[in-house]
Structure formats: C-alpha cells, structure tokens
Design goal:
Number of domains: 2
Shape: globular
Strand content: 5-15%
Number of strands: 6
Order of helices and strands: EEEHHEHHEEH
Pfam families: HxlR
CATH superfamily of the largest domain: Winged helix-like DNA-binding domain superfamily/Winged helix DNA-binding domain
Protein name: Helix-turn-helix transcriptional regulator
Largest sheet: 3 strands, antiparallel
Keywords: DNA-binding, Transcription, Transcription regulation
Distance between the termini: 41 Å
InterPro entries: HTH_HxlR, WH-like_DNA-bd_sf, WH_DNA-bd_sf
Strand order of the largest sheet: 1-2-3
GO molecular function: DNA binding
Helix content: 40-55%
CATH class of the largest domain: Mainly Alpha
Radius of gyration: 21 Å
Length: about 160
C-alpha cells in the first residue's frame, strides 16, 4: 500500500471500511493520497497493520455483550451477579468470557476482596471509561436512524422472492 500524507487526520480505509491518512482537497471531500491519487483509486489492503488493529478492537467492543457491560460499569464498580441480573439473558459462562476479554484488553479491572466469602468487583479502567462516549454517540446515531434503517430493511425484504 502506498504511503499516505503524515500531516493530515488519521483515518483508516481497508476492505472492512478504512487507508491510513487522508486529506480533503478543495473540491470538497475527495481525499488525496501521495501521487495525487484519490482514496477510490487505491486498492484496499485488508492485511494493513492498522486495519488489523481496528478490526481487533471492533471485534471486542462490537460483540453482543461488551457494550452493555461497559455502559453498566460506567456507573461504578459492580459484582458479577449484579451485572448478570441487570443485563438479563446472558449466561454465566458468556458474562465470564465477556468480562475476561474486557479485562485482557485493559477495559475492565477485577478486584478480589479478602472477605469470607470472597467479594469480586469489576470496574472500568480509564481506557474503558474513554470508550463510553463513542459508544453513546453510536447509540444516539442508531436511535436517530432507526426509522430509516427499518424502512430500508422493509423495502429490501419486499423485493426478495
């Protein structure tokens, strides 16, 4: 893949949706890359290191349960069963896997208190807290566009045999 301008906004374009850096030209929205080629002229590279990184993060935060856990923990530390009750519909195994994945990715901390019986609490790290705003913005976008999405799905389904 060609090297892109380094002095512009970092945006990623690959087969999953993202090229490394781009800049809009005076024509309002055509993105230039070194050699005066536009983003549409550049073959996407799904093996680009930045694309792989973005895909890894999106796989974690885009799964069914992680966003719910992050938003719940945004209100403060919670115990395992409290999280499970608040989410509803999540199995013990799936919540365990979700919490472990978030902990492994540095989004959640797990604290064991030396009491009898032992008490375990989960809390967001600074990195986990920084995820709440983009998730909230995505949720607001989804709500604002739900009618259009429903209409598009209905129109698509009506065309299917």
């Amino acid at each position: 893949m060609q090297e892109c301008h380094r002095d512009v906004l970092p945006v990623y374009v690959c087969n999953r949706g993202y090229v490394r850096h781009h800049d809009a030209d005076a024509q309002g929205g055509t993105f230039l890359i070194q050699g005066n080629r536009t983003v549409t002229d550049v073959a996407p590279d799904p093996d680009h290191a930045d694309c792989r990184k973005v895909s890894r993060v999106l796989a974690r935060v885009g799964d069914k349960w992680s966003v719910l856990v992050v938003m719940l923990l945004g209100d403060g530390p919670r115990r395992f069963n409290e999280i499970r009750r608040m989410i509803g519909g999540i199995s013990q195994r799936m919540l365990t896997l979700t919490l472990r994945g978030l902990e492994r990715d540095g989004m959640v901390t797990r604290t064991i208190y030396p009491t009898i019986p032992p008490r375990v609490e989960y809390a967001l790290t600074a990195q986990g807290r920084s995820l709440r705003e983009p998730v909230r913005a995505l949720g607001e976008w989804a709500l604002a566009n739900m009618d259009a999405i429903d209409a598009a799905q209905a129109a698509f389904d009506a065309k299917q045999p």
